[in-house]
Design brief:
By secondary structure, this protein is of the alpha+beta class. About 45% of the residues lie in helices and about 5% in strands. It is built from eleven helices and six strands. The strands form two sheets. The chain has a four-stranded mixed beta sheet. A two-stranded antiparallel ribbon has the order 1-6. Helix 7 links the parallel strand 3 and strand 4. The longest helix is centred in the N-terminal third of the chain and has 17 residues. The N and C termini lie far apart (about 95 Å).
Length: about 290
């Protein structure tokens, strides 16, 4: 009997603990809901917009398209050429090499290549046709008309250097991305010494298209037709203004030495803490 009585008393106390307190009459306050009890009001859902949670596990829903460039394992040659660009920005480049980063502006370069394309060398097929016609005229014992020497763009490093040394070149066009750079690093100084105007343009491949090759380090314009003399004179003036006259200035300018974004931000943070100028240009340079 005593055991049953103790059990009843324990159940009574448990029910009393779980029952929320009753509000006093006239207080106007509602008692706090019991812990774990659901709210009486439910948020109404719009039937037009049904929630459809997706599962992006293996073999489940397709992931949305995102930019995964940082996670791509690029080929080795791509990684090497990108690392080379970064290294050239970080390391200090001597002036003799840094001058090749100053190239001709786009509009002048377009005019230059228009002129160069007028004087493209003849292809193998065109040369073959010309020689066959000359041979046929000789076989028929006809006097072959002596044409003037054809006006073509000269290419080939040794040939162009010889023309510059002989002061026979009117304008020298140098590519900015020759590898190894030592092949053409002496050319600007040689052209200036010989009084030959020169320009540095973007793309050895673009120069190569003019002379039917994959790439070309240097091209030389020797002579042009009378109708193109004015255009050549304009290009020579632009070459003198942008390169020959600025040679002494560029001879003292070092290239590279640019810090990365993380390094620059770190130095700005330190400068700000020290109370110095945060926007000082020296912060971005090594």
């Amino acid at each position: 009997m005593e055991q049953k009585r103790s059990i009843r008393m324990a159940c009574f106390y448990l029910e009393l603990r779980d029952t929320p307190p009753k509000s006093k009459p006239g207080s106007g306050k509602k008692p706090a809901p019991a812990p774990g009890a659901k709210g009486a009001t439910k948020s109404t859902k719009n039937p037009l917009f049904e929630a459809r949670p997706r599962n992006f596990g293996i073999g489940q829903d397709i992931r949305p398209q995102t930019d995964l460039t940082r996670f791509v394992k690029w080929p080795e040659y791509v990684r090497l050429q990108r690392q080379k660009v970064i290294l050239r920005q970080r390391l200090k480049v001597p002036p003799a090499i840094a001058q090749f980063s100053h190239t001709l502006d786009k509009n002048t370069a377009t005019q230059l290549f228009k002129l160069l394309n007028k004087y493209r060398p003849e292809t193998k097929q065109e040369k073959k046709t010309r020689l066959e016609a000359l041979a046929a005229a000789t076989a028929e014992q006809k006097e072959a008309t002596k044409d003037k020497k054809p006006l073509f763009v000269k290419y080939g490093l040794n040939h162009c250097v010889a023309l510059v040394e002989a002061k026979k070149a009117s304008l020298v066009v140098i590519a900015h991305d020759v590898d190894p750079i030592e092949l053409v690093v002496f050319l600007p100084a040689l052209c200036r010494k010989m009084g030959v105007p020169y320009v540095i343009v973007k793309g050895k491949a673009r120069l190569g298209t003019v002379v039917h090759k994959k790439t070309a380090a240097v091209l030389t314009i020797q002579d042009v037709k009378s109708e193109d003399q004015r255009e050549l004179a304009t290009l020579i003036n632009a070459a003198k203004a942008n390169f020959t006259d600025k040679y002494e200035e560029q001879r003292r300018q070092w290239g590279g030495g640019l810090r990365g974004n993380k390094s620059t931000q770190m130095l700005r943070k330190r400068a700000k803490a020290a109370g110095r100028d945060v926007n000082a240009p020296a912060l971005g340079k090594l």
